[in-house]
Protein: Sugar ABC transporter permease
Organism: Undibacterium parvum
Amino acid sequence: MMLAVNLTPILQGLYMSLLKLNQYTLNQFLDAPFIGLDNYRRILFEGHSPIRAGLGFALRNTLLYTLVVSIAAIVIGLAVAVLLNRDFPAKGVARTLLLLPWIVPSYVVGSLWGFMWQRDVGIVNVVLVDYLHLLDEKPFWLLGANSFWAIVIPTVWRAWPVMMLLFLAALQAVPEDQYEAATLDGVSKWGQFWHITLPILKPVIVIQFMFQFIDNVYSYNIVSMMFGGGYPGEWADLLMPLLTRQSFSYWMFGQGAAVSFIMMTLMLIFVAVWMRSFKRSLANDE
């Protein structure tokens, strides 16, 4: 029963990707003209097709965005977790306050940072140019290559606190006697982190990287809210906004379903390769 519930939407999406399903045939839904793999051909091989050019930019941006956000969130989350694992006054209050970005809904994060990146009145340019005088003039953050960082920074800002929380929980399981023995042997704090903490946390880091990677590939809310649901430009467009725009703005539901199926296939390949590498790594560590 559960298998049928899980597979039915996937199979329906696959079938929709084989149909000429647009504003003219939407009233027929699953009885729309069957065109086989033509949607996939247009997306992958038809050079003058608008979605073909857009897909290249979105694929490049999604890959870079996913890698940068995933690695940055894990590195920052791990670094802060190690610092918070020490005893200091008001540690509980600090942990709670640092979790606040994660509590903010992603839709709200996109809207807030959209205002913050405004050229003339945004708080980012006001601080950088008017207060700190780090730049000579106020840059456009929502145009050109800067727009890539305009979507990366808010995503990292929201993602790293939950990484911190998970690593903090994992650090509680590290045997204290290993640190005490290393201290007696004269091992520095950095050496203890490198030779004790990091190897023990390796499975957690690898699993979190996989979850972060998958989650960021399907990122949509922040980009959509920051750019008002329109085209964000060739440096900020991701696969999910492209898919949504293709389906619901251009009414090309068949091509949108084909893009979603290509994304799902790529993610299945990634997860399969990751699981094989992870199992091999665990076997080598034993």
Remarks:
- Residues 25 and 32 are 6 Å apart (CA to CA).
